[in-house]
Amino acid sequence: MSSTTEQATQTARDYYNSDDADRFYAQVWGGEDIHVGLYESSDEPIKTASRRTVDYLADQLGSIQRDSVVLDLGSGYGGAARCLVNEFGCRVICINLAEAENARNRELNLAAGLDDRIDVIDGRFESVPLDDGVADLAWSQDAILHSGDRHGVLREVDRLLKPGGRFVFTDPMQADDCPSGVLDPILARIHLPDLGSPGFYQSAAKDLGWTELMYEDKSDQLVNHYRRVLETTEQLQSTLAEHISNDYLDRMKAGLKHWIDGGNRGYLAWGIFLFEKPTNEPVPLA
User: Fold this and answer.
1) What is the distance between the terminal CA atoms of the chain, rounded to a whole angstrom?
2) Does residue 280 fall inside a structural domain?
């Protein structure tokens, strides 16, 4: 594994394992989801918009059966996994690198009586400790950006998916025509030289032989979401400061403003991808 990939992984693990981050996301996001929401109004609660994203992604996957196995890469607190199990009765395997989030995920699964349908694995999604072809479907929300080897993540998804399996995901990205250097304040926080882009994911999927079933550009929702998180943070500042350091809150607000500015300038993108792995492996040319 390259030093860039290792550093990015460790940075993400340390960040999401920190008490400040865990308390922030649990209180501001509602303790179930940590991803971009689909907003119908500017003052909608983050938790409501975040759950709408889960419902919308689930609708894109088509038929999900009780015996379906869904692989959730970067599962956070497991909100999407519990939603899928409650709705379809399927089995979900959560892969996540932050042990603090995974512990909360297991506690919530147990409290909901779903621990027999959801497995939570501590691990990185560039190298998942599972056998080939274990999943009927794959799922990821706003997690792949943290990887220093995004090609490797997609290759792992390809390995883990059964033939004909589908992969639905979202990711904060840089625009395909993003000028060099303009996202440096954002990239410095995740210790990576770049973000993925719509064109990158579409090209990487084509190289794997996947069929692109959908890409919906919803970049406006990225700005909506980070603006809503910033507003909520400022509204709850005094309450949050009782449990979260002021240094963390100040850095969070500064970071959110960078995301909002980048989105408003057209340098960032966010959208929903749906790909399908071929049913049959290609026949080698003679």
Assistant:
1) 34
2) no
Q: How confident is the model at residue 32 (pLDDT cuts 50, 70, 90)?
A: confident
Residues in the chain: 286
Q: Which of 177, 205, 180 is nearest to 193 (CA)?
A: 180
What is the token pair recorded at 9?
């992984």
Provide the pLDDT for residue 283. Answer: 47
Within-domain flag for 34: yes
Give the CATH number, domain containing residue 201: 3.40.50.150
Range of the domain at 234: 3-274
Average pLDDT over residues 264-278: 97
Instruction: Please give the Cα distance from 248 to 46 (Å, whole number).
Output: 20
Number of domains in the chain: 1
- Could you read off the pLDDT of 159-177 as tens digits, one per residue? 999 999 999 999 999 999 9
pTM above 0.90, yes or no: yes
Looking at the domain assignment, is residue 212 inside a domain? yes
Under 8 Å between Cβ of 124 and 154 = no
